[in-house]
Amino acid sequence: MKVYGYLRASTKSQDALRAQEDLKEFVNGKGKKVEKWFVENASGATLDRPVLLELLSEVEKGDCIVVEQIDRLTRLPSDEWKQLRHTIEDLGVSLVSKDLPTSHDILSPPTDKTEEFTQGVLVAVNRMLVDILAVTARKDYEDRRRRQAQGIAKAKEAGKFKGKQQSAETVAKCEEALKLVNENNLSKVKAAQLAGVSKATFYRWIKDNNK
């Protein structure tokens, strides 16, 4: 059995490596070692995660994926979570979450027939609990999104919402792009590219500043 660690944070400003040492210590305490770490900054609400897909392409039957919490692996809608779970199961790979004690014994293979029976029961119970935690993670995601939308709506009503503030560097690049548009008759797309700012950011800056 090879053990692979998966670490995820939602945004680039968050530290995806935060839980690495705790997970390493946890796995070592079970007499195993993490063969390789897969780390990415991406939303758990989408399956479009290159590092996760890389992990799934590398694991083999009998291997194990270890995460800190189930919500590090998924905040997916129910149908997409089932798709991911089935992919993991079809690969013959086990899933261990540090915050889910029923999954810990997966790292300690049974030594006799009695323990094999117990292991089978634990696998079934663990699968059910993982599904519950996956649903809970999705609900938490949707609740936070709803509260955020409500807060923005109230702020807009009060005339206090200004949206995400752009950095001074981004503003300078947008100003440079606008200058290229006005003085060199370039398209906004080309000007943004030359100024080193994304098209979406440039268009939003134009809109927000009535340029």
Structural commentary:
- By secondary structure, the protein is of the alpha/beta class.
- 55% of the residues lie in helices and 11% in strands.
- The chain has eight helices and four strands.
- The protein has helices spanning 20-29, 50-58, 70-73, 78-90, 113-157, 168-184, 188-195, 199-208, and strands at 3-9, 34-41, 64-67, 94-97.
- Strands 2-1-3-4 form a four-stranded parallel sheet, sandwiched between helices.
- Helix 1 links the parallel strand 1 (3-9) and strand 2.
- Helix 6 crosses helix 7 (188-195) and helix 6 packs across helix 8 (199-208).
- The mean pLDDT is 87.
Brief digest:
By secondary structure, this protein is α/β, with parallel strands linked by helices. The chain has helices at 20-29, 50-58, 70-73, 78-90, 113-157, 168-184, 188-195, 199-208, and strands at 3-9, 34-41, 64-67, 94-97. Strands 2-1-3-4 form a four-stranded parallel beta sheet, with helices on both faces.
Segments where pLDDT lies below 50 for 5+ residues? none
- Radius of gyration based on Cα positions: 23 Å
Total helices: the number is 8
Instruction: Give the H and E element order.
Output: EHEHEHHEHHHH
Tell the overall outline.
Answer: elongated
The largest sheet, given as strand count, sense and whether it forms a barrel, is: 4 strands, parallel
What's the count of strands?
4
Mean pLDDT: 87
Strand order of the largest sheet: 2-1-3-4
**Cα separation of the termini:** 59 Å
Helix vs. strand class = alpha/beta
> Into which percent range does the helicity of residues fall?
40-55%
Strand content: 5-15%
